[in-house]
Amino acid sequence: MSGAWLIALVAWPGVMSLAIGAAGRWPNLREAVSVITGLVLLAGAILLIGPIAAGERPSVTLFSILPGLDFTFTLEPLGLVFALVAATLWPLTTFYAAGYMRGNREGHQTRFFICFALAISAAIGIALAGNLLTLFLFYEMMTLVTYPLVTHHGDAESRVSGRIYLGVLLTTSIGLFLPAIVITWMLAGTLTFTHGGILANTGLGPKGAMALYALFVFGIGKAAVMPMHRWLPSAMVAPTPVSALLHAVAVVKAGVFSVLKITVYIFGLDYAFKTGASEPFLWLASITIILASVIAIYCDNLKKRLAYSTIGQLSYIVLGSALATKLGAVSGSLHIVTHAFGKITLFFCAGAIYTATHRKYVSQLNGMGRAMPLTFAAFTIAALSLIGLPPMGGAWSKWYLMSGSAGVEEYALLGVLALSSLLNIVYLLDIPARAFFLRGDNNVPTAIREAPAACVVPLCLTAAGCIALFFAAHPIIDFVSSALGEGA
Amino acid sequence: MIAHFVSQFPILVVVVPLLTMPLVVLAHRAFAAWALYLACTWAVFAMACALFARVATHGPIDYAVGGWAPPFGIELVIDSFNAVVLLLVAGMAAINSIYARASLAREIEPERLYLVYALMLACLAGLIGITVTGDAFNLFVFLEISSLSSYALIAMGPKRRALLSSFQYLIMGTVGGTFLLIGVGLAYMMTGTLNMADLATRLPAVFDTRTCQAALAFIVVGLSLKAALFPAHIWLPNAYTYAPSSVTAFIAATSTKVAVYALIRFVFTVFGASYAFEQLPLNQVLLGLSAIAMIAASLAAIFQTDVKRLLAWSSVAQMGYIVTGFALASTAGLSASLVHIVNHGLIKGALFMAVGAMAWRTRTTSINDLAGLGRTMPFTSAAFVVGGLSLIGVPATAGFISKWALLSAILAAGHYLIAALVLIASLLAVIYVGKVVEALYFRPRDAEASNHDAGEAPLAMQIATWALIALNVAIGLHASPELTATGRAAHALIGGGA
């Protein structure tokens, strides 16, 4: 596979955003262009699986940004997994968004679809970035192009939320992430993602490595490790398709993917393990997991509850990275996939409920399971996947995360993960339980039906995906393991 | 013949604008005056490009004015450092000439337009003169030419407050000019020469004298006034706010930058970094002041209600970055300084042009009155957003390159506190840029206002603005040529070569 293929993948959604803009006056054409763009992107990404699995690492350098620092794309298994997740879920979300945006008579739909395409372009750019500077460039691009999506409604509430969104993400990235990159550059003289890391021979001691790792992980605000998580609940003012694809998949996964990639290819698993650089984050991630789950229990707003659930689940992946073992990294990248399918389904369901009934609060959902059986069935499946029960994909990522924790003899982490599963049950299964088993209140209009097919079909597909991942997990694990090579 | 002509470029870049100036006055008609101004600035720009290319390939150019050999005659020296500054000044003037016609026609009555063009040429000649001269007294003369024309230009602003601002600037600028003259005079007294290279060889013998120390002090303070280095910045916000839009765009991008260049030249070439920074604690003073400038001026910018004034305060803060860079007294720091001299020129030039385009349409620069322009002026507003991102230092913009260069220089010198302050200042930039962007996009246009002023600015103004924005992005994506040039320049200056 030639490097030009990589450029094409990154540029394609961006270029097609122009076509989406040009088709702005004809909504059907516009959405058709969006969906087709997504499918072509997916096909392009799928074609790369074979060569990458065979050990190819295509790379292309466009130009040098700074002397010695190039604008480079390199594809390796971790990145391809992330790119595939984004490319698979984007067309589905576009399909869903068409139903949702029209069903709720949202304005500025052309701007919405353009920004969506640009955000995907940024996500693919992050996935394929060949060095830290290229990654940072797309990381910031993603923050900026999703800002109009968060503030889509343009009212006072979205303006305030937009401020928090940009405020936290830009503050962390400029204030912490950027200096971390500069320091790495000055220590190592390179920022290229390298097998085994680039910091091992720089003479950086354990304390320095720990501080640098902290700068990175807190600097990557998109990973939402507490206390850098405030932007995510704020972003929930956006239309639900945005929350579904961007704030459950593309944006937040870009964050944890960056953490994973930095752990594996900048620090290197051996170096990180030896110096204990990532060790504090075992506990910081654990605290985030527990706290976020507890907060989620008390959120009545459905989307906000899902947002806090996301914060907790993201820290699973941070935890996997922070283990700094092969098993940890594998479980982290597997969780990127399984959580993406689970959480997007939950958000799709939340959006479908909103489209059908304009209800946003958990306490309003009593007895609605009968009226919207497909939606709540999908919700249940996705919830079970996030809790980590077979036969859902989430079971595997939790399994490997637990065995990874046991592997480094951190048995307290097993307790954290078990407790978190229990909390997940409390806040997630509460919702279908209310819908199916409680009686609705009397002032419910009787004519509640399922949301439009454009909304229901995607959520059934992603729910099916949660189940399929249970059976397809091992190819993914083998694929990712091939990137990490031998070692701990 | 042609080679002979080319060899005269160092003097021609100064003389051509000076000689075009009376022609502009004679032309008198607005269009003819503008056409001359346009032709002159582009000719100067072309010569600047040629000089830059020549210095890059053949090394420094020494030019003896009138054939009088230095140190007795006046010498012009173009090395890899001031070639960059020359290119910036000439380039900004050229792009500004496209922008100026429509913009000035809105703000100044037609019968006085030719005076503005003439003064802009005088200012350009002065700034270029400061940049290319190798003679300390000659530098003072050109500084006064550029200053006097700036006072008049600012006074021509459309509001009556422009007169007061101009007067304020006149007082501060004259103090600055006089201090410079005193400093140069003291140095002359001790060495009997005014040629910079000659001064550099003779001054070390008298380094221990009070007079020599006083000379450096006077020169630094005088030039700091012109460069608006905190706390000598008080003239700047008013001057930038009330000057005509295209004048602000030009002066903001060049004038303070050239003053900083002159400061760098005196410190590094004439007195030498070891004297200024090791025997005297100039770097401590400059680092402290610029740290205050970065934070205090950024905070002040947040509370402004006028976009031009907001950007002006931001300029004061950005001068802090530039001065921080060379106060580190390292090659990396000096290179970062030069990078930001250029990049900040491009950023502020673009932003002031975008604001000028908005003012062309709305006849105001108050943030409240610009609300909702994102809808009626989509291209200009988008230009402001990209320029603002560059000011913040988001990747893929010139501002990011500056920040990267500056941060690595500061960290290499081990000044972690200053690195933190630089980052805090960029976060403050997020707030003040965000404030304007929110007004442009999230607040509805005043219904009464939108009736008579819907639509975009003239095409020429948009082209000029977007040309600078495109440069910002191009440098942000591919800064290697720029960093190579500034690295070479810094190396030449620190290495002691002129």
TrEMBL record, chain A:
Gene Ontology annotations for the cellular component aspect, listed alphabetically: plasma membrane
Residues covered by the NADH:quinone oxidoreductase/Mrp antiporter transmembrane domain: 129-421
UniProt keyword Plastid present: no
Major site of localization recorded for this protein: membrane
Record's bilayer topology term: Multi-pass membrane protein
Compartment(s) where it occurs, according to its Swiss-Prot or TrEMBL record: Cell membrane; Membrane
Alphabetic keyword roster: Cell membrane, Membrane, Transmembrane, Transmembrane helix
Presence of keyword RNA-binding: no
Top-level taxon of the source organism: Bacteria
Pfam family, one: Proton_antipo_M
Residue ranges crossing the lipid bilayer per the database entry: 6-26, 33-54, 78-98, 110-129, 135-152, 164-188, 208-225, 245-268, 280-299, 306-324, 336-356, 368-391, 411-430, 451-477
Entry's family note: Belongs to the CPA3 antiporters (TC 2.A.63) subunit D family.
PANTHER family, A to Z: NA(+)_H(+) ANTIPORTER SUBUNIT D1, NADH DEHYDROGENASE
Name the UniProt record assigns to this protein: NADH dehydrogenase (Quinone)
Organism: Salinisphaera hydrothermalis (strain C41B8)
UniProtKB/TrEMBL annotation, chain B:
Chain ranges passing through the membrane: 6-27, 34-56, 76-100, 112-130, 136-157, 169-194, 214-237, 258-277, 283-303, 310-329, 341-360, 381-401, 407-433
Localization per Swiss-Prot or TrEMBL: Cell membrane; Membrane
Organism from which the protein derives: Salinisphaera hydrothermalis (strain C41B8)
GO MF annotations in UniProt: NADH dehydrogenase (ubiquinone) activity
Main subcellular location: membrane
Membrane topology listed for this record: Multi-pass membrane protein
Every NADH:quinone oxidoreductase/Mrp antiporter transmembrane domain range: 135-428
Record protein name field: Monovalent cation/H+ antiporter subunit D
GO CC terms in record: plasma membrane
Keyword hit for Ribosomal protein: no
Name of a matching Pfam family: Proton_antipo_M
Family from the record: Belongs to the CPA3 antiporters (TC 2.A.63) subunit D family.
Alphabetically ordered keywords of this record: Cell membrane, Membrane, Transmembrane, Transmembrane helix
GO biological process annotation, one example: ATP synthesis coupled electron transport
